[in-house]
Amino acid sequence: METLGTLFLSPFPPPQRNPFLPLLHRKPRRRASPNPPSSTPLIRSLQFSDPWSLSDGNSRSRFRPKHQRKKPLSDDDARRIIKAKARYLSELRRNQGSHAQTPRWIRRTPEQMARYIEDDRDGHLYGKHVVAAIQKVRALAGQPEGSYDMREVMGSFVTKLTFREMCVVLKEQRGWRQVRDFFAWMKLQLCYRPGVIVYTIILRTYGQVGKIRLAEQIFLEMLEAGCEPDEVACGTMLCAYARWGRHKDMLIFYNALRRRKIVPALSVFNFMISSLQKKKQHEKVIQLWEQMLDTGVVPNSFTYTVVINSYVKQDLMHKALEIFEKMRKSLFIPEEATYSLLISMTAKNGDGDEALKLYENMKSQGIVPSNYTCASLLTLHYKNGDYSKALSLFSEMERNKIAVDEVIYGIIIRIYGKLGLYEDAEQVFQEVENLGLLKDERTYAAIAQVYLASGNYEKALGVFELMRSRSVELSAFAYSTLLRCFVVKEDVDSAEATFHILTKFGVPDAVACNELLLLYVRLGLLDKARTLITRIRTDKVQFDEDLYRTVLQVYCKEKNLEDAEQFLEEMENNSFSLDKYTKTSLMALYGESGGLQKAEDVFKSLEQPDVVAFSVMLSLYAEHRDTSSSKTILKSLLAANGGLSVASQLISKFAREGNIEKASSLYGQLFELGSRPAEMAMSSLIDFHGRQQQLEQAEDIFTSVDPSNKGKLVYSSMIDAYVNCGKLDKANCLYKEMVEQGLSVDVVTLSVLVNALAKSGKFHEAESIIHDSFQSDVALDTIAYNTYIKSMLESGKLHFASDIFSRMIREGVPPTIQTYNTMISVYGHGGKLEKAIEMFNTAQSMGFYMDEKTYTNMINCYGKAGKSHEASLLFNQMQKEGIRPGKISYNVMINVYATNGFCHEASNLFQAMTKDGLVPDSSTYLALVQAYVKSHQYAEAEDVISMMQGLGIGPSCSHFNLLIGAFTVAGFVSDAERIYSNMKKAGLHPDIACCRRMLRMYMDYGLVDEGLSFFEEIKQYVRPDAFVYSAAVHFHEFKDNGSRAEELLHLMDEQGLLFHSNMRVGSKAKPS
Prior knowledge:
It contains 57 helices and no strands. It is mainly α. Among the domains are: 484-577, Tetratricopeptide repeat domain (Serine Threonine Protein Phosphatase 5, Tetratricopeptide repeat, Alpha Horseshoe); 580-677, Serine Threonine Protein Phosphatase 5, Tetratricopeptide repeat; 885-989, Tetratricopeptide repeat domain (Serine Threonine Protein Phosphatase 5, Tetratricopeptide repeat); 993-1071. It comes from Colocasia esculenta.
């Protein structure tokens, strides 16, 4: 930039001079006397002078003798000619725009057309000599610097190229050295004349390769040559600075242009603000945007997009939205990324309505949201508690086939956790791991929080152990969750160590401090609590309401009223005033610390106690078992508006928290005062006793309810209690009673009851409930229909399951991917492969995301139908869709190959499974053994079992039975006995299938003694079986041991076993 340190960058241009020409400090000289006047030269000048002609730049005047020099024009005429010519050229180039070099249709006269055809262009853009010159100069790129002389290279082209053609050759060069050398040669030609266009070409080339210093030198040379740079040349220089990150020089140069009122083109502004934004200089982007608007340049879609991005990065939400509205009014359609930024910004700033408005506007434009946009909206719904909207958005993502990334899965896990759907959250987490997306520590922390919410801190700690084993680095948020785990576990040492690690990230937040402080209070470690409070004050932790309350609780536990009062004063100084709600909280704290009298004093200080204050005092009196005071407060509470509802809510609260003694006491006092608790309270008590397997207490509460006031909520809770206690018959009877009372059964109760009956094998009762709900026209939801179909699948009522699905479609209830999965299983079990394929294709056509489970289910159907080729194609298609097969998918596909005897394919797939990092299980090896046995490769099958044992995977009887069965059929008795011996060495007792195969072998081949010995060995391990005992009878009869045969026949009669009389010893034995 120093090379441009001329008057061009001066803040004050000199008056009466061209602002782009440098000031030449020359000594004034005396002007020579003019020649005698002559009229002829003057007349020729007036007749032939061209007002648009400029100097050709060769500075011929310095070589002319004085008597040949032309009379110079006045200063005003020179400035007029130069500026007029510059304006003309500038306007011409501006009108042509970016297509200045694009050939256009030109209207020519017939004579012009004939001459055009006869020239050497042959219809091309440039003449042959121009193309030859271009190639000649380009060929120099392969030669080292200084190895050639451009004058010698271009010697054959002297006087052959016009100035315009030389510009063309210059423009077509690719190397900056060739441009530099050719330009030096150009300036030696007679037809050369300095012009802004040729300098702009050179500036562009230097700017593209980053030769900024050379570009500055050329720009300075242009000024010295008397060429006034226009907005194109200046814009080229600005783009060069921007391209190579020379932002300081770019802004200095731009400010110089502003002082000279040169306005760059819109594309130049776009280049500059884009370059500034890439370097995160958003303030300068905004400043440049405002200056652009001041100059009257109309922005385009790209400009709006970049500027909105910078306003968002600067967290200027209202300004960003304002510019966004201007963009829309200008009829520009914003990009998805712009919508995404604005939605994310408005969601983070708490303006959820505006975020949803932007999303709806984006959908109206036909723009499909990205997964980043969906993640922002899901986070918004999660924070607002709109879980139904979040799940609806997730379904919409599946329909639009938007790829779900780990962030979205993490949000879904948190939503499921908030809804109490802990198993679903765990399944989602497992799905993320199977898909290979599990990388972010926040996903681990999310499932850990779910486990904590479900009360299973052991699983939560297991998640952190998994993170350590995978070298996942924990953030402060993850350590805070780990701290909560140790707090719930009441592991003081681990909690303190985790808190110490948190301090390395900076000052811990109020939540972490509160968690550790609560642990100390819960365990009675008041000394440690006091030390922690001192440290919190020293580190100047910003208190929140929960931390204030916990600290007050510590002071109350210590009965340190002086510190408590000082702390209360500090709360007031920090704008935590003691309003009635704070006083109510203080009442609770006093009561919990044993200061019931102080709590009463605070209660009396309330001018108008509300129902919340009454409920707190009622809770305190219940805690202290002060029945008299409790009744007095309860009377006052019942007299207040909504008091009965608050009392009922308090009972429900006690029941949910497990304080059943308080709940029962308050429940009895309400009855004594002649009030009936609300149905919600009764339901909560029944729910508690049902969860605790206290069926008698639940039945007592249910019986105590007035029959006229028994609503469906109480009935539903009692049915749930029966289900939890395993009393399904009573639950079914209560359901029938509920129906007889004319109460509508909610879909949740129906789903729970049908699911429980199906799992316990009471399929008839489950089917009856399903029929009743259909006849009663209960408005079933998708979950209820899915439960119905699954229960009928488990019961084997495949036709009825199909009818339920048809009814679901008729009723307009939208099926989910789980519905289609279940229906694929229904048709697969029924052998209706075409129907299963139809379900699979329908799910695809409806836009559902076809997950691994769906593909695996369909592959299994193909395998059962013997369609191994189609199953293999679908398995490959699943991988092409980006779905990584899991262990179950591999097992199913290997089993398909094994069942159909494709040993080689099964072995290859097994190898692919291990290469994918999946550990085969017992089912995998069982399928592999089956594949080898089907192909009569018995040695390989034995090797598979040995490999299992070597890896510490214990084989089952099924693994050995495959080999034993194959050897018995083939007549390899010794091999069958050897495999049987290996099975016993593995610590396995033969199952009934193994015993039948061995006895069948001994029977067929006439090995009577071996058969009897085997029978005596196994009869203590297996239950009495008709085939086993019948074989033993035949063996004894063959040995003429009739008494023993009679004993076994008598035993079979007692057991109700049918004797197989058609068995024959030695049916396959070779005659001797």
